[in-house]
């Protein structure tokens, strides 16, 4: 082992229970079939399989793929023989993968072997990350995985090669809550060359567009409360909606949404490109080195700053269009023309400094909380399947909310600075002066004005984003684990 591998505890199991005989194993599989065959018709359909595997964190696409792989007579269901034959064939594939991972042929897999094997297929992870993977399968607490643990863990997960295993372990969600984009996902060289990345980004952009559109009324209410404070916009969420409906009708609830969706595509593309460039700079000559969490955070912040600087004029236009009164602007171009004529080019970067400052607490806390929650889940669920998609969705929602809470005062100041000219008689003041005025006139609570509709939109935003994300990836030929669909 190299020097960095001394972190791994050296405990190993000296004696393991001998594997069960083939007869006992297939008897256990027969019992599984009986349990899953809910209507006792001698067949298992997709719905019964989903119910039987509900606790394993598998996506619908994965369960569908099990039926497709085992259904030799193409009748859409698995009979007993097809079920047993699928498990036999899949076990053989798992055995090949296990032997490939077990580099020293001792019948056990440790974290360094996981790290080395994934490194060989272009997936660079740290030893600590490899240990987290190991913990998800280590049922007996020995810090190693034997064949029985490996087989039981992946028996009902339709993985066929080590690349699939790697994606299964690194799986993450690109969810959008309408706020700042989080630190981009990590992609392997094989994924970049195969076109997987653009399909992933396209699915994320589509999910974000639907999510933002679905929660646009809450977003507009948030902006109103941020800008007008307590003096002009009193009452609860319901009274806020009534005010907007009286002023402009139902369509007014979606004012500003068009540009909010329009900026998502370029922001995602710029952030991903910048993230890859910054990672290369941090790695230097050692292009295969795994980035540590704090390095990913730095790269994410710099990529976010680059993306925000590029698209920031659209942020200002979004705020002005969101706050506009009926008839004030005829559209996006008219809004931009009026701002340019009345206030000059500098108006398109109002609030830029607090916006840049808010990137650090948002990205840092979002990443830290997400990693902490995922690690905590693995520690509490040793020997259980890795975090399923809903666990990751939950982690993403909580981490995003924590990031928003930390960066919200800066976001509020940014929005007020962006909207200064749209508030009648409002003087142009600096960030520090605005901060002082808010605390003096409204107290500390004033820095969180409008946060209630912002928090209310987290759950629907994440839910919409996940559903659209999953189905868009399936339409593009990439399932939730990241593999190309095999059709025909």
Structure explained in plain terms:
- This protein is an all-alpha fold.
- About 65% of the residues lie in helices and about 0% in strands.
- The chain has helices at about 20-35, 45-50, 60-70, 80-100, 110-120, 125-135, 145-155, 160-170, 190-195, 195-215, 215-230, 235-250, 255-260, 265-285, 295-325, 330-345, 350-380, 390-420, 430-440, 450-455, 460-475, and strands at about 45, 80, 110, 145.
- The strands form 2 sheets. It has a two-stranded antiparallel sheet.
- The model is unreliable at about 1-20 and about 480-488 (pLDDT under 50).
- Keywords: Calcium, Membrane, Metal-binding, Mitochondrion, Mitochondrion inner membrane, Repeat, Transmembrane, Transmembrane helix, Transport.
- One of its GO terms (molecular function) is calcium ion binding.
Q: Per CATH, what is the topology of the largest domain?
A: Mitochondrial carrier fold
Largest sheet: 2 strands, antiparallel
Strand content bin: under 5%
Low-pLDDT parts are 1-19, 480-488
CATH superfamily of the largest domain: Mitochondrial carrier domain
Q: C-alpha Rg, in Å? A: 26 Å
| Main sheet strand line-up | 1-2
Order of helical and strand elements: HEHHEHEHHEHHHHHHHHHHHHHHH
Q: What is the mean predicted local confidence, pLDDT?
A: 78
- Which geometry do the CA atoms define? elongated
- Architecture of the largest domain, according to CATH? Alpha/alpha barrel
Q: What is the distance, rounded to the nearest whole angstrom, between the alpha carbons of the first and last residues?
A: 45 Å
How many beta-strand runs? 4
């Amino acid at each position: 082992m190299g020097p960095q591998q001394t972190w791994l505890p050296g405990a190993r199991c000296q004696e393991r229970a001998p594997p069960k005989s083939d007869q006992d194993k297939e008897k256990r599989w027969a019992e599984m079939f009986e349990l899953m065959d809910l209507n006792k018709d001698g067949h298992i359909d997709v719905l019964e399989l989903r119910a039987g595997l509900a606790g394993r964190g598998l996506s619908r696409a994965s369960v569908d793929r099990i039926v497709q792989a085992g259904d030799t007579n193409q009748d859409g269901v698995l009979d007993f023989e097809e079920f047993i034959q699928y498990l036999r064939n899949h076990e053989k594939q798992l055995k090949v993968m296990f032997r490939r991972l077990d580099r020293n042929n001792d019948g056990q897999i440790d974290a360094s072997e996981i790290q080395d094997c994934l490194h060989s297929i272009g997936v660079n992870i740290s030893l600590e990350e490899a240990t987290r993977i190991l913990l998800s399968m280590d049922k007996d607490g020995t810090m190693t995985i034997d064949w029985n643990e490996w087989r039981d863990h992946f028996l009902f997960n339709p993985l066929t090669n080590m690349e699939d295993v790697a994606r299964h372990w690194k799986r993450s969600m690109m969810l959008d809550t309408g706020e700042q984009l989080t630190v981009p996902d990590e992609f392997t060289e094989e994924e970049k060359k195969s076109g997987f990345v653009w399909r992933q980004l396209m699915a994320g952009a589509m999910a974000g567009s639907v999510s933002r559109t679905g929660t646009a009324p809450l977003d507009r209410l948030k902006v109103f409360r941020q800008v007008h404070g307590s003096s002009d916009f009193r009452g609860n969420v319901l009274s806020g909606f009534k005010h907007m409906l009286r002023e402009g009708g139902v369509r007014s609830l979606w004012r500003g949404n068009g540009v909010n969706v329009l900026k998502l595509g370029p922001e995602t593309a710029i952030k991903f490109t910048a993230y890859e460039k910054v990672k290369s700079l941090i790695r230097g000559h050692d292009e295969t080195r795994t980035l540590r969490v704090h390095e990913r955070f730095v790269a994410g912040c710099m990529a976010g700053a680059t993306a925000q600087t590029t698209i920031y004029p659209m942020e200002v236009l979004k705020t002005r269009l969101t706050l506009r009164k009926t008839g004030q602007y005829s559209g996006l171009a008219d809004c931009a023309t009026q701002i340019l004529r009345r206030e000059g080019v500098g108006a398109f970067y109002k609030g830029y400094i607090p916006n840049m400052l808010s990137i650090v607490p948002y990205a840092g806390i979002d990443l830290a909380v997400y990693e902490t929650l995922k690690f905590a889940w693995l520690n509490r669920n040793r020997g259980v399947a890795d975090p399923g998609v809903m666990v990751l969705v939950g982690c993403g929602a909580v981490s995003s909310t924590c990031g928003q809470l930390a960066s919200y005062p800066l976001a509020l100041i940014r929005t007020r600075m962006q909207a200064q000219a749209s508030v009648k008689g409002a003087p142009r003041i600096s960030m520090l002066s605005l901060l002082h005025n808010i605390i003096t006139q409204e107290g500390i609570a004033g820095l969180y004005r409008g946060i209630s509709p912002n928090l209310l939109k987290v759950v629907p935003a994440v839910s919409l984003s996940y559903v659209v994300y999953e189905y868009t990836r399936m339409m593009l030929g990439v399932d939730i684990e990241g593999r190309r669909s095999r059709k025909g």
